[in-house]
Design goal:
This protein is mainly alpha-helical. The protein has one domain. Helix content is 83%, strand content 0%. Helix 1 runs antiparallel to helix 2. The protein is globular, with a radius of gyration of 12 Å. The two termini are 18 Å apart. The model has no long low-confidence stretch (mean pLDDT 93).
């Protein structure tokens, strides 16, 4: 069983890192966190939503503006996770 507190800490660091491009941070969520915290990605609807938005960002080849909108949703959902 994964540690939700550790996941929250890692997500907090990723969303706070404004120097790294959004696509890179979304890829980090998908390629690293979703794999390491697979049990939580299956059981936590908020973490699932973060993964869904990160997938859109990584795979869509959207404009920077559209990615920013989706990233805003990632941030909102992470804050929901942190508050619960």
């Amino acid at each position: 069983m994964s540690d939700i507190n550790q996941l929250n800490d890692e997500l907090r660091v990723i969303i706070a890192d404004t120097q790294t491009p959004i696509v890179v941070r979304a890829t980090q969520i998908l390629d690293d966190l979703m794999a390491r915290y697979a049990d939580l990605s299956e059981s936590d609807p908020n973490f699932q939503a973060v993964g869904d938005m990160a997938t859109k960002i990584k795979t869509s080849e959207a404009t920077e503006g559209q990615n920013g909108i989706w990233w805003g949703e990632v941030i909102r959902t992470v804050h929901t996770m942190l508050d619960s």
